């Protein structure tokens, strides 16, 4: 009886111990925790392409969490995940749904970012869907019609090229063009060879002329500089004279000087006209007297009063 009881106790302890180990392994594999060392993260995607609850969340390629919920809000997919608190996300962190293996498994790859600002966990982390094999096949299907059009265009182009290349007249023209180009090249080579000495002499003369110009500039630099300075001074003086002349004309128009008053003052102008008329009359009288009997002068002189 006692031996049977001991056996039952041993079996019970073994079962309890095995069950504890099984629960611990299951919790480790499923990322189950009771210590509260994980935090929840909301991620927003346009599409998750087969992602399921329980799929892994990796941070820089290392398994760190799992997907706990997936829901559709309006036209977006909101994925809720749990990751350890020791993973610090920055404001430029990103999330990406990737293919985990060739069998079609999915995971979420998170890049923590490198910004100096922390990510606000009350906000949704923006994510995107990485192109996988089904996505690539879908893209190929989308461009199938365009590929057909490109192949048809290439076929037409090749047919035209084949037709042109089989045209004897075109081939003859090409041969003629090549022959003419060779003849032109031969003529140019012959001209250069026959006039080699002249070209060399022309080059030497050009070098001599350049040396003379440089020598002239070196010898007359100071003179040219003085000439430029004097020319600049002359231009400045002419500018001063022009300014003074403009000022004088402006003062004349505004009757600010004597010439302006004399020209634009109507009273002065009338007096001048009267004076000229009287002078004209006197001149006429003197001329008539000189023609007749000479100039008569009637003068009364009073010596004593």
Tell me what the structure shows:
59% of the residues lie in helices and 16% in strands. It is an alpha/beta fold. Among the domains are: 30 residues; 96 residues, Elongation Factor Tu (Ef-tu), domain 3 (Beta Barrel). Strands 1-4-3-2-6-5-7 form a seven-stranded mixed β-barrel. A hairpin with a 6-residue loop joins strand 5 and strand 6. The longest helix has 33 residues. It is elongated, with a radius of gyration of 56 Å. The mean pLDDT is 79.
Radius of gyration: 56 Å
What is the approximate shape?
A: elongated
Helix/strand/pairing category: alpha/beta
Summarize the amount of helix as a percent range.
55-70%
Number of strands: 7
CATH T-level fold name of the domain at 37-132: Elongation Factor Tu (Ef-tu), domain 3
Helix and strand element order: HEEEEEEEHHHHHHH
Poorly predicted tracts of residues = none
């Amino acid at each position: 009886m006692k031996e049977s009881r001991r056996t039952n106790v041993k079996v019970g302890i073994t079962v309890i111990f095995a069950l504890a180990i099984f629960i611990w392994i299951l919790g480790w594999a499923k990322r189950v925790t009771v210590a509260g060392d994980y935090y929840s993260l909301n991620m927003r995607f346009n599409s998750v392409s087969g992602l399921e609850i329980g799929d892994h969340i990796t941070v820089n390629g290392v398994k760190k969490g799992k997907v706990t919920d997936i829901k559709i809000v309006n036209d977006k997919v909101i994925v809720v995940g749990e990751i350890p608190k020791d993973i610090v996300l920055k404001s430029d962190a990103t999330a990406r749904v990737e293919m985990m293996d060739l069998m079609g498994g999915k995971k979420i790859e998170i890049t923590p970012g490198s910004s100096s600002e922390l990510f606000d966990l009350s906000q949704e982390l923006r994510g995107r869907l990485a192109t996988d094999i089904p996505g690539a096949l879908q893209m190929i299907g989308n461009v199938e019609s365009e590929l057909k059009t490109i192949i048809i265009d290439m076929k037409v182009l090749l047919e035209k090229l084949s037709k042109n290349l089989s045209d004897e007249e075109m081939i003859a023209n090409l041969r003629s063009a090549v022959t003419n180009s060779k003849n032109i090249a031969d003529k140019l080579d012959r001209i250069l060879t026959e006039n080699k000495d002249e070209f060399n002499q022309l080059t030497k003369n050009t070098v001599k002329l350049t040396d003379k110009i440089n020598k002239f500039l070196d010898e007359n630099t100071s003179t040219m500089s003085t000439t430029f300075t004097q020319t600049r001074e002359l231009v400045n003086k002419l500018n001063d004279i022009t300014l003074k002349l403009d000022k004088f004309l402006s003062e004349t128009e505004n009757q600010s000087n004597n010439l302006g008053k004399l020209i634009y003052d109507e009273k002065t102008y009338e007096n001048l006209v009267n004076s000229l008329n009287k002078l004209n009359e006197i001149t006429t009288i003197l001329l008539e007297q000189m023609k007749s009997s000479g100039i008569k002068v009637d003068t009364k002189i009073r010596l004593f009063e």
